[in-house]
Amino acid sequence: MINRISRCMTTLVSRYMPEPLVLAVLLSIVIFFCAWGFTDNTPVQLVNMWGDGFWNLLSFSMQMAMVVVTGNALASAPQIRRFLGITASIAKTPAQGVMLVTFMSALACAINWGFGLVVGAMFAKEVARRIRGTDYALLIACAYIGFMTWGGGFSGSMPLQAATPNNPIAHLISSESNPLGIVPVSQTLFTGYNIFIILMLLVSLPFITRMMNPKGEDVRNVDPKLLQADPDFSKTLDENATFAERIEESRLLAYVIAGTGFSYLALTFFKNGFSLTINSVNLIFLMTGILLHGSPAAYVRAITNAARSTAGILIQFPFYAGMQLMMEHSGLGGMITEFFVNISSKDTFPLLTFFSSALVNFAVPSGGGHWVVQGPFVIPAALSLEADLGKSVMAIAYGDMWANMAQPFWALPALGIAGLGVRDIMGYCMTALIFTTPIFVIGLYFL
Fold first, then answer.
1. How far apart are CA 90 and CA 266, in angstroms?
2. What's the mean pLDDT in 266-290?
3. CA torsion, ordered 367, 372, 373, 377, to nearest 10 deg
4. DSSP secondary structure code for residue 249 in this structure
5. Which residue ranges traverse the bilayer (predicted)?
6. Are 205 and 148 in contact (CB under 8 A)?
7. How far apart are CA 140 and CA 440, in angstroms?
8. Chain segment 226-253, per-residue pLDDT in tens
């Protein structure tokens, strides 16, 4: 059944889902008209909101572009290629390859979402190189499907923001007993329902993707160029090399740069405690890449080779930034949340918050932005209904990460690494969305 549904979803997506940039434009238009029709804002005000927000994600866009290029460059280092090859060799059949990629990606994303996004795609490419008859698009989809664990993992932005003093929603929670206005991770990440949901995803997702595995003529052949190993970026100098060339290819200089970067990370972790952020992940990838490539010039060549994968991120993120501000400032995001709040009871509130979060995700796929849009409405409602505050926070996170399977925003880094388009993978991802729904319902309503 899962195989038939995945084939059907893949066919529908290939026919009707536009490329991500066009989808972002269409979503912007839909949000504009919804905000115009359901709020008191004029078209001029909405256009101003969209334009004011258009460049709000520039720093985030750069972070995500760095995720792609540093991850890709790291994967092209000889040592990493050997490690990925050894790990990928565990799988002997296409079905085993699909399960292995899904599990490794889900586990990595539960540890750190930025790390998992990149490593999952890199690992999927290596498995595709080694196992003939594997559907490459499904393998890359598996790498993205594993992303479904991130919101309840150690780097989940919403539970971590809720546990941070002076976060944007802290003033709504602050009281005599909780002057900092925080929701500690003991009430979100380290709860029975969250552990249940994440473990169930880790266990079930590999089997779900295995049952999607196409056979025979349904297997889509991959362009061999996409699986070609990256060239060796090292360079051997001859006796006539200039001083500048020797500096550029200096292994000692690579050691100095990497040593400085790792020293900074060690000092930061010692001072603030071990916590992986997207910036620290990027720095780890960058410094490790320089170290393993062996010289600054070799690393630059690897980065140059990887940079072409960032086009989708650079052009699309501004459109989502405009949508996010339009949703927030027009009040449309609040209206969507309030609708679900008004039909909720104490027991159903987390579950309905989950579905409202999934809906908002299409316009605000960024976890941090999502929290800013929904948090001001969900938190007061949870307090008013005396609903579980921690579960309400996690419901926003779950809805966000669940709906990512139908929203290609976060797939862009993986697609950039893989060299595929959104239509190649989203049918599989939507199938995973359908069959993981019971896990979230059980966790939020029955536990």
1. 33
2. 86
3. 120
4. T
5. 21-39, 98-124, 136-155, 190-208, 252-270, 276-300, 425-446
6. yes
7. 24
8. 777 667 787 777 777 788 888 888 899 9
- Percent of the chain whose predicted confidence (pLDDT) is above 70: 98
Tokens coding 198? 């994440």
* Amino acid at position 230, single letter: D
Cα torsion 399, 402, 408, 410 to 10°: value is: 80
Instruction: Round to whole Å and give the CA distance between 161 and 272.
Output: 16
Long-range contacts of 82-86 (CB under 8 A, 24+ apart): 84/122, 84/123, 84/126, 85/126, 85/130
To the nearest 10 degrees (0 to 180), the angle between helices 94-111 and 113-130 is: 160
293 vs 70: CA distance, rounded Å: 12
According to DSSP, residue 446 is labeled: I
- Could you give the CA distance from residue 401 to residue 408 in angstroms, rounded to a whole number? 12
In the prediction, which pLDDT does 433 show? 96
Which pair of structure tokens corresponds to residue 11?
């066919």
Q: Which residues of 421-432 are buried (b: 16+ CB within 10 A; e: fewer)?
A: bbbbbbbbbbbb
Query: What is the pLDDT confidence band of residue 76, given thresholds at 50, 70 and 90?
Result: confident
Rounded Cα–Cα distance for residues 53 and 68 (Å):
24
Closest CA to 182 of 159, 205, 202, 200: 159
Predicted local distance difference test score (pLDDT) of residue 288? 93
Q: Residue 372 is encoded by which pair of tokens? A: 């800013």
Distance between CA 420 and CA 94 in Å, rounded? 19
Give the angle subtended at the CA of 229 by the CAs of 228 and 233, to the nearest 5°.
130
Q: Measured between alpha carbons, how far is 144 from 416 in angstroms, rounded to an integer? A: 12
pLDDT for the residue numbered 295: 92
Q: What H or E segment, with its residue span, contains residue 76?
A: none
Neighbours of 169 (CB within 10 A): 22
d(CA 384, CA 346): 9
342 to each of 162, 334, 377, 381, 382, how far by Cα in Å?
Answer: 23, 12, 11, 9, 11
- Pairwise CA distance, residues 338 & 352, whole Å: 11
pLDDT of the residue at 94: 93
**In this predicted structure, what is the pLDDT of residue 229?**
67
